[in-house]
Amino acid sequence: MLASNMKNAPYQRYYNLAEGVTLELGQHTLIMGILNTTPDSFSDGGRNRTIASAVEHAREMVNAGADIIDIGGESTRPGSEAVPLEEELQRVIPVIRAVREALPHVPLSIDTYKAETARQALEAGAHIINDIWGLKGDVQMAAIAAQFGCPVILSHNRPARNYNELVPDVIADLEESIRIAQEAGIADASIWLDPGIGFAKTTEDNRHLMAHLNQIAEMGYPVLLGTSRKKFIRDTLQLPVDQITYGTAATVTLGIAQGCQIVRVHDIQEMKQNALVADAIIYR
């Protein structure tokens, strides 16, 4: 059953990021466009094989309505192998520099759990850290985020699915990530949360968590939702990854209605339209 509290007041936050880039929360749902530089991503692996193609893809996403571009060099799909640091750096740093030059006013996030990658990415022009391990994958990550004073996205994740009660356990794990951030000196205003849809969760777990996203939003931090083309949608619809745009749109709507303020997606134009209609109701 969907949680009954479907409307949360949006957090009003304004960020002065590096190099004069700004970002505002609370006016509309922010669209984060996914720019993978990996050859093996479950959805679009190999699309951005060159720097030029990556820049063009970023430009297309911004023109379609993306507010942030999220650049990653390691697939996080189930069963994927870890990418060595040097290889990840070779994939993402030149792309960050090129996208920064081509789109100087667009906020960029680095999708990594490695502190050294985050450091070099921020030095190259990224503005936000998107850590799928919520500062728990690399003990130096919190210090890097504090040093740069940048927003950091703390995603829920576990090495294995071992929950006593799903939603309370997700909240407790996120609270631990928040504590790590605070102890490192990261300002509360720089903390965003991600419920970690698809990470160490079954299809039924993901559905259950989707129905209770309002409890994550009620923790007092902006929430990013990343459901785009995820396996639980494919399982629900029994369709391949290139045929579930409408299924993703349903999850985006549910997330916005429960207080999620940022959505991380592949299909920018479609999800932007979806968000505009939801925002017209929720942000009125």
Give a structural overview.
The chain is α/β, with parallel strands linked by helices. The chain has a single domain (13-282), classed as Alpha-Beta Barrel (TIM Barrel). It is built from ten helices and ten strands. It has helices at 51-64, 85-102, 115-124, 141-148, 166-184, 203-210, 213-217, 231-237, 245-257, 268-282; strands at 13-16, 22-25, 30-36, 68-72, 108-111, 128-131, 152-155, 191-194, 224-225, 262-265. Helix 2 (85-102) links the parallel strand 4 and strand 5. Helix 1 crosses helix 2 (85-102).
Round the Cα radius of gyration to an integer and report it: 17 Å
Strand order of the largest sheet: 8-7-6-5-4-3-10-9
Q: Uncertain segments of ≥5 residues (pLDDT<50)?
A: 1-7, 40-45
CATH homologous group name:
Dihydropteroate synthase-like
- CATH topology: the name is TIM Barrel
Mean pLDDT: 93
CATH class categorisation: Alpha Beta
Secondary-structure-based class equals alpha/beta
- Helix run count: 10
At CATH level 2, the architecture is Alpha-Beta Barrel
- What percent of residues are in strands? 5-15%
Task: Report the end-to-end length measured between terminal Cα atoms.
Answer: 26 Å
Q: Main sheet?
A: 8 strands, parallel
H-E string: EEEHEHEHEHEHEHHEHHEH
- What oligomeric state do the depicted chains represent? single chain
CA-based shape: globular
Structure summary, number of beta strands? 10
How much helix is in the residues? 40-55%
Query: What's the number of structural domains?
Result: 1
